[in-house]
Specification:
alpha+beta; globular; 22% strand; single chain; 6-stranded mixed sheet
């Protein structure tokens, strides 16, 4: 691969889009990032403008190339990673969306999920999909669009309307859009729609029928890393050259790959808008008895898929943003740690951020956020501290469920995402879990995972050992809390969580 020095990763997240260029050692060579609007038409509804996301994507690609002084010919392949479950429908002839993208956090499909659960309960489709019926997943969002957007069902039946999660929307545009863009999604993103059968890795005809979804809308399901590129970028597009697009992973699975969790029993937690703990369970899906999701971890080329158990937490970093933007506690998210350090502990309060219900392991869409234990003694510092601690407690809820489902004791937790530079949070996380917490040198593991998927496909990296050699420890936190304190604090948290149930009638 003479002359080829880099892999480009597009990381389209809930609040921003990045393009990161990596070298062979998995180091960041150049990066550009841009935020996009969060649209809240009414309580519980969250939308994005898909055209704005495509605009931002083009901008960050051009800027990352320019900042790194990188010629398009030096890039071997492009990998994509994305906020999962966020749902877009658009016209295949014009590329125009029929409606805004409905974001994964959106709860408008609560009624649809309850309706679907009337026959067979919340776990009606779990044997096929590994997922409970919840507002989180794309299938019910697509049902809502088909029911509420004028003319969409007819367009879908004619074959004019395309459905995709954000990865599909971006790959379609990158490879030509209305002029021959490819309509694909990978197994990890497909496994989050509530429409894919985990065992066959194909769309489940029975579920499509129950939900009334025309199959011709759906993208082709492909491996996460594919030696047969789905398409190439266009020379008149943001890359300015024809480059294979051959890597695609949902953001949490991408972080698992970026953390090189390729062995059964290896786990990572990503601290972003929400928190997502994934455990590699190997070549067979492990059904969850404790409120976790069974999902596809990755599939490389024509090898069998690898599966994972996942605990999804809706609100972690988003809680810090809420303190910043809604309550104006501080101007920059990083200051939450400064305020939290002004107090020795939480002062007896707990903050349960069930803003859009509770995800794993509870799956309660009737829950809403609360602060409990308030007294006159409480200051802004205590609230900031309780907000950070909520992330660590929610992680422990999931961690325990995972150990019970998988029947393994997790020995350490690899961490990544924006919040892992918060030293107070990382130490409290180690304390409340009673295991070491490990941060790698390259904490951009989501983008790195997408780069790895694309690079493996074109032979830029030989094999998984190549990737493992890139992974290095930056910092470790070890538990320092005594057992009695740990359990007392955690029992208080469990009591607080119960108080959130049943708030929405």
């Amino acid at each position: 691969m003479a002359g080829v020095r880099y892999i480009a990763a597009i990381d389209q997240g809930t609040t921003s889009t990045r393009c990161i260029i990596f070298d062979r050692a998995g180091r960041v060579v150049s990066v550009d990032q841009k935020e996009h609007r969060q649209i809240y038409p009414q309580p519980g509804w969250v939308e994005h403008d898909p055209l704005e996301i495509w605009e931002r994507t083009q901008e960050v690609i051009r800027n990352a190339l320019a900042k790194g002084n990188i010629a398009p010919e030096e890039i071997a392949a492009v990998g994509v990673t994305n906020q999962r479950e966020t749902t877009v429908v658009w016209d295949r002839h014009t590329g125009k969306p029929y409606y805004n993208a409905i974001v994964w956090q959106d709860t408008r499909t609560d009624g649809i999920c309850q309706q679907l659960a009337q026959e067979g309960g919340q776990d009606r489709f779990r044997p096929q999909t590994g997922l409970p019926l919840a507002t989180y997943f794309s299938g019910p969002k697509l049902m809502w669009l088909l029911e509420h957007v004028d003319g969409l069902r007819q367009a879908a039946e004619r074959g004019d309307a395309l459905f995709g999660t954000i990865d599909t929307w971006l790959i379609w545009h990158l490879t030509g859009g209305p002029e021959g863009g490819v309509h694909v999604t990978d197994v990890t993103n497909a496994s989050r729609t509530l429409l894919m059968n985990l065992h066959t890795l194909t769309w489940d005809e029975e579920i499509l029928q129950v939900m009334g979804i025309p199959p011709q809308m759906l993208p082709r399901i492909v491996p996460s890393s594919d030696p047969q590129p789905w398409g190439t970028t266009r020379s008149d597009g943001p890359f300015g050259a024809s480059i294979p697009v051959c890597g695609n992973l949902g953001d949490q699975q991408a972080a698992l790959v970026g953390q090189t969790c390729f062995e059964v029993g290896e786990a990572k937690n990503t601290y972003g808008t929400g928190c997502f703990l994934l455990l590699n369970t190997g070549p067979r899906p492990v059904p969850s008895q404790h409120g976790l999701l069974t999902t596809v971890a990755y599939q490389f080329g024509n090898k069998p898929a690898t599966y994972a158990l996942e605990g999804s937490i809706a609100i972690t970093g988003a809680l810090v943003q809420w303190l910043r933007d809604n309550l104006r506690f501080f101007d920059f998210s990083k200051h939450v740690e400064d305020y939290a350090r002004t107090v020795p502990d939480n002062g007896g309060i707990y903050f349960v951020p069930a803003f859009s219900g509770l995800f794993a392991p509870y799956w309660r869409s009737d829950a809403r956020g609360i602060i409990v234990g308030l007294t006159r003694y409480i200051t802004k510092g205590h609230i900031c501290r309780a907000a950070l601690e909520a992330t660590a407690y929610q992680t422990r809820d999931v961690f325990e469920a995972m150990e019970q489902d998988a029947g393994v004791r997790l020995k350490a937790l690899k961490v990544d995402g924006g919040m892992v530079y918060n030293e107070l949070l990382m130490q409290f996380q180690a304390d409340i879990l009673n295991v070491p917490v490990v941060r790698p040198v390259v904490a951009e593991t989501t983008s790195l995972g997408a780069a790895y998927a694309a690079g493996l496909a074109v032979g830029f990296w030989e094999d998984l050992d190549d990737l493992r050699q890139n992974w290095q420890v930056d910092r470790e936190w070890h538990p320092q809390m005594d057992e009695a304190t740990r359990e007392r604090l955690y029992q208080g948290w469990r009591k607080a969580v119960e108080r959130t149930f049943g708030w929405v009638e």
